[in-house]
Amino acid sequence: MSSLPHQVLITFLLFFSSLFLHSSQQTLISPISKDDSTKLYTLLIYLKTPLQPSKLHLDLGSFLPYYDCARHYKSSSYKPLPGNSTLCKDLNTGISVSCDDRPVGPDCFRDDTCGFVPQNPVTRKTAVGAILTDKFALPTTKKPGLPGPVTELLLTCTFPDPNSRIYKGLAKGSNGLAALGRFNYSLPAQLSRAFSSPLIFAVCLPGSSTAPGLALFNTPGPYYFSPTINLSKSLIYTPLIPGPGPTVFEQYKSPDYYLGLTSIKVNSFVVPLNKTLLDIDENGKGGVKISTYTPYTLLQTSIFKALVNAFVKESAKLNLTVTAAVKPFSVCYAADKITSTRVGPGVPTVDLVLQSDKVIWRIYGSNSMVRVDDKWCLGFVDGGLNPRTSIVIGGHQLEDNLLQFDLVRERLGFSSSLLVYSTTCANFDSTKN
Question: What is the reported pLDDT for 433?
C-alpha cells in the first residue's frame, strides 16, 4: 500500500507534463508586416481548403474577423452559419441575410444566414456580410514558417461592394481584417476556445517594413528575443478598464483596450492637463485607448498643445530649435542637430503615467519622433477639440514594444522600447520559446 501514493504522484506528474507539452506545441505565432504606404499593419494567417496564406489588416479593436469573399474566396470547406442556430443567437447580431440575385457562394446563400455589420476601423464605413466558418491555421513556434494545427474560424464574408468602402484605407495588400478586440468571437478569443488555452496574447509591431514583427497566441510567455532576453520578466502591468458602448452593435461592450492614464510627463516635468478628459464621461466620451487604426497618437487639442509646449521647452534645454513643421506634425527639428542614441533620436522622454507613479510607459525618441526627409518631427497629432476618445495611442508609439493582452486578469503588460534591451520585434527567437 505504501507504493500507491508514489504511483499516484507519477500519474499526476505525467498527466500535467502531457498538458504542458500539448500546450507548448500549440503556441501559435503569426508574422506582422508594416505597410509603408498607409503606416498600418497586416497579420498573416492560413485560411480555406486547401490552406492558403492570407494577409489581414490588423486591428486591436474590432469584433469579428472579416474577409473580402466576393473577390478573393475559393474554398471547399466553408459553411454558412444558419440564422436560427444557437451560435447565431449567442452572437446576438439581430441580423439575418440571404440573397437570390447572384450564384450561391461564400458571399451569397439562399437560406437565412446569420449576418453582421463589419466596420472599417480607419474610415468608420460599414458594410453587410454573412457569417461563415472555414478551416484556419497559424504557424507554431516549433515550425514558424508552416501552418500548424487546423481548427475553424468564424468570420464575416462581406457582400460585393462596388465602392470597396469597407476596405478603403486599410493596410495595402490585405484581403480582410484580423479582429483582435475584446469580444467573445475575436481572433484571440476563438483561438483560446479552440485550444482550451488562457485568453492571453501578445503583439509586437515592427518598426520597419523590411523586418516583420509578430503576434503570439495561446501563451503567457516566456517571450525570448535575441540576444537571449526573456522579455516576459520585464513586462510592467496596468489594468484594462471598460470602454464606452460602441457605435455599431450597441448591445455589445466596447472591443477597444482602454487604459487608466493619470498624467503625462516630459522628462520629469508634469504636463498640465484637464484630467477630466482622461476619464470616460456619461456620454461615452473621453478616456485613453490603444489602437492600430491610426499611425500616430491622437490627442485632444488642449492635451496636444500642453504636450507640445512641454516638449519644446525641454528640447530647448538640449539646444534644439524648432524648424518649419511638416504635416501632419506640428513640431520638427533639423535632423543633423539631434544626436543618435541606442533608443533613437536624443530628445526628451515622454512618460505615460498609468495607475500610479510607479507604473510608467516611457516613450523614447524611437517612438516619439518620425523622420521626414532631413527632419525629425514629434510624432503626435492634434485629434481635435471634441474627439470621442481624448487620447488614442497609435501604431508608431507601439512599434518595437512588446504588449501582452491578458484578458484573464484584465490587464495589459508592456515593455516600453525593446531598443533598451538592444533588440527589436524582428529578433523574436522561436527556438527558445
Answer: 67
